Amino acid sequence: MSRHHLVKSHPMLGYFFRPWIISNLYEGLCFLLKHRRWPNFKKTGYINDLVFRIRAMESDYVFRSFTSDKEFSKIFIRGVTGEDVCVPTLAVLHTAEDVDQFAFPDNCVIKPTHMSNEFVFHTSGPVPDEARERMRRWFKMNFADMTGENNYKRLQPKIIVEPWLELNGQFAHDFRFHMYNGNVAWIGLRVRVSTDKEISYQLTPDWHLKDGPGIETEAASIDIAALRPKQIARMIDIAEQIARFADYVRVDFFTDGEDQLFVGEISHIYAGARKVFKHVASEQIESRPVRPGEHDTQSTTVTPNEC
Question: To 5 degrees, how large is the angle CA 235–CA 179–CA 108?
Answer without folding.
Answer: 55
